[in-house]
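Notes, Module 5: Reading structure tokens.

Key idea: the token line is not a picture. It is a compressed description, and you learn to read it the same way you learned to read a sequence, by spotting repeated patterns. We will look at two proteins. The first is printed below with its tokens.
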Amino acid sequence: MTAFDRRDATATLILRLGLSWFMFLWAAHKIITPAQYQGLARHFDGLEIALWQVYLVAAVQIVLCTAMALGALRPVSYGALALMHAYTVSRRWEGFLDPFAVNGNGFPVNRNQVIDLAVMAAFVALVLLIHRDRFSLGGWMSHRMGARWWQ
């Protein structure tokens, strides 16, 4: 592995761990405060969801975050979390049109949407650089065993 390859592998490792941690925190919050997520589903999607559904989504996300942190089943784990985040971004697009809006107390009301967009860009970069993600279980398996399905 060249110095260039090590630098790319390190960059994708940092990106992968940061994104998996970000998504894990959102999944953990679904377990800690499930009623908040029921309210978000009602507000943004017009759906009434049961607590068990919130917990199920959180569990699936935690499994995917763990796989992503390890770099296992990369197309599945990276892709699924990227699609979940893209769904979140698509539901909140109005905030992108007014990123500097503040409420009566001077609080920036659309800053989470701006953060969401940056995270989406990071997901796109990680998916595009998946072949450079050598410091991962999938990268190690494909290098060691030639097992392309781990990629």
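Here is the second protein, with the sequence above and the tokens below, as before.
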Amino acid sequence: MALAIRDVREHDLDAVLALNNAAGRSILALDAVQLRFFYEHAEYFRVAEIDGHLAGFLVALRNGGDYDSPNYRWFCEHYESFVYIDRIVIANAYRRHGLGRVFYCDVTSYAEVRVPLLTCEVFLEPRDDVVVLFHGTYGFQEVGQQRMGEHGPHVSLLAKDLPSYAFVRETWLDHGGLPDVPWLAERQLPLLPESLPRRLAGERRP
């Protein structure tokens, strides 16, 4: 089984939209305009491919963006600097194979060299104990709860401290920025040429 985690490409968007909207009640539906917003503005938008098939995706945004999600806005009001996981979706055929942890390792690696905090929310209505347990074992702590609008679902707002960030900030960010290497590139920078090898899940990073 060949697994690759890579930045989303424009030709992936139709498949990503279909995957998102087939995920069930635990994932909010999207339309093409909303998905295009993520493509153009999300600093982290990556997909998993298994043997060339789209197996899942994760979207995350930095603080300070123009995104009207009530959960994202809650974190903006309470924290100065963070990466917010908006959604992760795994195709039915590839669930229970550890792809969620692969994605969370990858987004953590992205976030910990840029911000001190990784955030997200989990639905409490309907409550999924597997999802709650997953986030707890991955180091997330509840920092608040809220209802998404007057009649929206009740959610638990979660945050995970990224202890590596202090070292990165003192060593690089306070002295000119991160090293110029591909895996540290921001989402808005040009994607790697197709001829370069993709980063495989579990690849050891410098």
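Summary for the second protein:
- Strands lie at 3-7, 44-50, 53-62, 83-90, 117-123, 141-147, 154-161.
- The longest strand covers residues 53-62.
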